[in-house]
Amino acid sequence: MTFVTANWNPLGEAFYRKVELYEMGWNLKDGLRDCLVAAAPYGGPIALLKEPQRRSPSARPQLEIYSSSGASMASFPWKSGPVKQLGWTVSDDLLCVQEDGTVLIYDLFGGFKRHFSMGNEVLQNHVMEAKVFHSPFGTGIAIVTGAFRFSLATNIDDLKLRRLPEIPGLQGAPSCWAVLTQDRQSKILLANGADLFILDNTSCTPVTPPGLSPLANSIVQMAVSFSYKYLALFTDSGHVWMGPANLKDKLSEVETKVRTPPKQMVWCRRPKSQQPSVVVMWDRHLLVAGECKDTIQYHLDDESFLVPELDGVRIICGTHHELLQEVPAACEEIFKIASMAPGALLLEAHKEYEKESQKADEYLREIKEQSLLGEAVRQCVEAAGYEHEPETQKTLLRAASFGKCFLSNFPPEQFVSMCRDLRVLNAVRDYTVGIPLTHSQYKQMTVQVLIDRLVYRKLYPLAIEMCRYLKTPEYQGVSRVLKHWACCKVQQKEEADEVVARAISVKLGEAAGISYSEIAARAYECGRTELAIKLLEFEPRSGEQVPLLLKMKRSQLALSKAIESGDTDLVYKVVTYLKNEMNRGDFFMTLRNQPVALSLYRQFCKYQEQDTLKDLFNQDDDHQELGNFYVRASYQEGKLEARLSHLQSAVDEYNKAKNEFAAKATEEEMRLLRFQRRVEEEKGERVLGSSLQDTMHCLISAGLHKQAEQLYKDFRVPDKRYWWLKLSALAEKEDWDELEKFAKSKKSPIGYLPFVEVCVKQHNKYEAKKYVSKVTPEQKVKAHLAVGELEGAAEAAIERRSEAEISLVLSRCSPTTDRALLDRLNRARSVTAKK
Amino acid sequence: MAHSSRRDAPEPPDFSLLKRLAKDQLIYLLEQLPGRKDLFIEADLMSPLDRIANVTALKQHEVDKLYKVEHKPIVSMCDQLCFLIRPRIQTVKWVADIVNADKAAGKFRRYKIIFSPRKFYVCETILEEQGVYGDVSTDEWDFYLLPLDDDIISLELPEFFRDTFLEGDQRWMTTAGSALHLLHSLYGPFSKAYGIGRSAKMTYALWRELVEEGEQRARKPDIGTVFLIDRDVDFVTPLCSQVVYEGLVDDIFRIKCGSAEFGPDVTSSDKSVKVMLNSQDKVFNEIRNEHFSNVFGFLSQKARNLQTAYDKRKGMDIKQMKTFVSEELKGLKQEHRLLSLHIGASESMMKKKTKQDFQELLKTEHSLLEGFEIRECIAYVEEHINRQVSMIDSLRLLCLLSLTENGLLPKDYRSLKAQYLQSYGIEHLLTFANLRQLGLLVEQQPGETLTVMESKVGKLVNDKTAGKLTDAFSSLAKKSNFRALSKRLALVPKSGEEYDLRIPRDMAYIFSGAYIPLSCRLIEQVLERDGWTGLEEVTRMLNGNEFAVTAGNSGSESRLKTDAQRIILVMFLGGCSYSEISALRFLGRERGFKFIVVTTAILNSARMLEAMLDSHV
């Protein structure tokens, strides 16, 4: 292990260190010379466009995408228009801003995703310079055109182009500019010579940085910090001015003694920075200028590119990838030469312990005496997080763990989570993955985003491992990764649908919260309809399948799935869709095979489109239903003629349906209606629409016996029914003469007991008695009882020698008034019983 | 009746929470339309609403006037109108008409429709077609569970029956599933689920889907078991005349949302009285499950007790009198009032029901159930039709005849139908078409032997993968198989034995000892067997679609019959009758279970058949 402090350089009170991240795996002939470079923050990918100015069709510029470790991810000749600027979005997509204002979006692997334009003005005047920036609203693009006007889009996923106002007095290109985010708004800060302007949606405000060296004629470079909070300006006099981005204050001004405009200038800060600085780069020269006016100088062997980060600056050159940062306080405390900080002592103690030396105890005692052991452990754990070398991390953690042994009640969370974090970080920093995240960046970025990044890089196994290791809830973790994997899988055109579908189902089988319909939608987007349908089969929620099936024009299938889902609304949506999509014939045919949908549609038609309903039945040759339809229609009709015509249609349909019974019944109804009308016209009795029975009843009540008789004959009403009917109608009317006449007209098919009962019901015992004699012997007892003639009943009962009947009569006798009768009956009963 | 091993049934959980939930949501919805507003309420939502939030509560939330939806032009001066309606096409059209009429008159108002229990896509389509979609805001009041009593919860969706079984419409399945899910999340988790019928299966599936989507909260269950049953599994039971007190009250006075209106003949005054009939009514609570023949005895005993209680006054000193007046008198007075009401009701029923005709009617029903003297029964039905005794009763007898006999002979079918049409008019052609569709009244298919039929049914059942309801109304599987079922499940006790109705020995007492309701028998059997094993023959005859699922580890836990496991939620999809509830209460007492009945609506024969009339739509 080399000496930790070997690469440390003092800057004011603090130290700066330059750590090598990777030896670049790429093989660039000319390094970064003559390249358009874009490197995403948070250890993101690097895009290179070599010789971007080449335009002849025979020699296209080459666009290459690499990981941070220089592993190639894509490489292809650039065939579109000349590119002015490259940039990365927050979701690792590459933006290529062309001269004509068209922005092309590619994924990490060089796959074209989409494009959009920055507007007509840009198209006409061309892009002079463009910048890609990140804000809380997403990834944005700012452009200055050949006409020196600025256009800006804050979020490329929700494109709203803004053309910013003109800058007064701007004759040529601004000498430099940058994008600021202030007050939830993206603004442009630009310099025209020594004048500074802030440009927002509506206005252009001149500003002056307080205390800017009066020697400066022009501001030639500016840098905004990662957090948009600080601003640095480089003047042609070689001064670096530093201050807050709101320009209300000045932090410091450093003279660099270099007057050439730098190639790049970026801030180098970290959270809780002791000594923030600005890194200025010329061709072979790198200068770190601290607020304290100290500087560190580095020589650069090669053309380099600076990538500002949350907690430092990455320096990429043709061969190496380094991280320049202020040494974090914890590391400084521990590793500074001759440090007596508790962490440093603990590290020392542990070293001695390993050597089995008693000095270990001395060191420990020293820390413990100051009761700083807890602090020491915390320092070691924290410092481990800032170290890049796994060996150093281990040493520190071992020391921490050693220190912990001497502490009771020390909370383990910090140690455990640091171990876990480092394991993840080391995994993604690995050369093959190439994401050189620092611990602070990782915490800022969150696990969710890191997993996304791995997924974008198609590092599915690692992503899944990580989710499992971190115990991320399945829904957010493993399932999400698997879904991405599946979405990627369906794009592999060389594999057969069957194979892909099976592979996906095998992998995804158990995972919770997987939406197969999303994967299927992806497959469909890639033009693999068959695969999409196969995938939808795996979707357990039928409802989810429907929208995509409709989109794929699998309407039949969509309909059955909607029905399966049990969601009638969904069925109805599909039905409505089908109705508009298909011709009527096909539509009806489709419904015919789906009773549930059909019934739903019928219900709708019943209220909204009566005629469609008829058509539906017609289509099906469902004559039975058509007949019913006409019958129903006839009842909604007021006019008799219309009713009859409906009924006639019903008769025809019933005949076609071979339902003779219904046809006959309907015909009879028509006859009845006509008859009723005649009666109404001739006799003025309101009978129209009544049932046959009611009509006859009405006629008899009205004394129209002839007409009633006619109905009885015409409609072949059963005798019993007619007798019952006439009997009760006459009794109700108390037309006793007619009743008597009727009783004598012929032998009653219902016997004469009903006559007795009906009369009694009308409280006319006198009339009732007339019929008692006519009653059959079996019913005599009942008849006598009905009219209250106990003696008659008793006689009949005794005559018939029926024990049951005798008992019945007995039960009606009262012991006080019917003494004699009682005795007689009891005697008779005992006689009958003996037999 | 006494059972040595019998345990007391556990106490049911408190369902008043459901009311509070519904009320809070309704008020929230009303507040979404701030300011004074007139509220139009769908007629069949009025009684349920009354149980949830009374007029004062509504007025507190700036409801100005209340109107019933009558499908007529409205008279309202208010500039905000709120409609609380069922998601029915006609009603939505009516609202659209109002909006359009206002537009034509140049009147500007705000409109809001609150659909209960949910909004259908088709309703929005109507608003769109009528060109008022933008003028009306819509919302949903997902009120699906109304506790009618300690052990009865109703969805108050009478149309469920017709929509599901006749129209083959699945629109209410989601509601049933959500209702079950709500109960599950408030009183569950249910660890066991049994069920039979297509709707049951579908409801179960939808509910499980909801459970899996939602969060799982571990809680101690109040209710452990749930049994889902489709009404079309057993049509016979609701068609029988009810003879248990509560059922009789429903048949005669029609209980609406747990309250009945007793007319002047009951109250022996010139006023009608509305009475809540539930376990709060102590008198009613004691007689509701009794066979009618015992009720008078009970009531007179009660009257004597009451008299004794009153008589205590005699010989009291002032102090005792004071406590008596302050503590007991009010209760006694209340009891007195209720007692006289129920005596009045019983008298009125007695008048109707002890008549010769009713006895003969019952005799015919019993013969049909037993399968004796069918010709005499047919003659009786015929006379019943001819004499126009009652339109609904005649239909009921016809249906019972067809169900118990597996369809009518073609000759009988035609002649009875023709007679019926002569009595009640040709529009009943449509009624008969509906009854045939549902399998309630069918013609025996000549030449089709049982085996052919069975193989068809078997195939039909097997084709339906995963139990999803793909075609809800194939007319094929409409054989009732009642006779065979009755034999296998011993639904009809051996006749000849005397049945003492005062001491019921099985559930048959609810039908005077003549018949054990099929639905309740199934529940009993399945609970006893802990599943459907041994009932394969029965389920085959009922067209299958049975299921029994035990959640989690079924080991020692389920064998340990906890209180929760002994509280059983029975969900009737398509409605159930009070008699069935009485039967389940009896079963619960016998076996130490507590049954909670959840039903889409309270059904009786009249309601069931009226739903089949086409004029009614």
From TrEMBL, chain A:
Residues 514-829 form the Vps16 C-terminal domain. The keyword Protein transport applies. Residues 5-416 form the Vps16 N-terminal domain. It is a peripheral membrane protein. Its main location: membrane. The keyword ATP-binding does not apply. One of its GO terms (cellular component) is CORVET complex. GO terms for biological process: endosomal transport; intracellular protein transport; vacuole fusion, non-autophagic. Keywords: Endosome, Lysosome, Membrane, Protein transport, Transport. InterPro entries: VPS16, Vps16_C, Vps16_C_sf, Vps16_N. It is found in: Late endosome membrane; Lysosome membrane. One of its GO terms (molecular function) is actin binding. Coiled coil: none annotated. Plays a role in vesicle-mediated protein trafficking to lysosomal compartments including the endocytic membrane transport and autophagic pathways. Believed to act as a core component of the putative HOPS and CORVET endosomal tethering complexes. Core component of at least two putative endosomal tethering complexes, the homotypic fusion and vacuole protein sorting (HOPS) complex and the class C core vacuole/endosome tethering (CORVET) complex. Their common core is composed of the class C Vps proteins VPS11, VPS16, VPS18 and VPS33A, which in HOPS further associates with VPS39 and VPS41 and in CORVET with VPS8 and TGFBRAP1. Interacts with RAB5C. Interacts with STX17, MON1B. Associates with adapter protein complex 3 (AP-3) and clathrin:AP-3 complexes. Belongs to the VPS16 family. PANTHER family: VACUOLAR PROTEIN SORTING VPS16 (PTHR12811), VACUOLAR PROTEIN SORTING-ASSOCIATED PROTEIN 16 HOMOLOG (PTHR12811:SF0). This is Vacuolar protein sorting-associated protein 16 homolog. It comes from Anguilla anguilla.
From TrEMBL, chain B:
It is found in: Late endosome membrane; Lysosome membrane. It is a peripheral membrane protein. Keywords: Protein transport, Transport. InterPro entries: Sec-1-like_dom1, Sec-1-like_dom3a, Sec1-like, Sec1-like_dom2, Sec1-like_sf, VPS33_dom3b. GO terms for biological process: protein transport; vesicle-mediated transport. GO terms for cellular component: late endosome membrane; lysosomal membrane. Belongs to the STXBP/unc-18/SEC1 family. This is Vacuolar protein sorting-associated protein 33B.
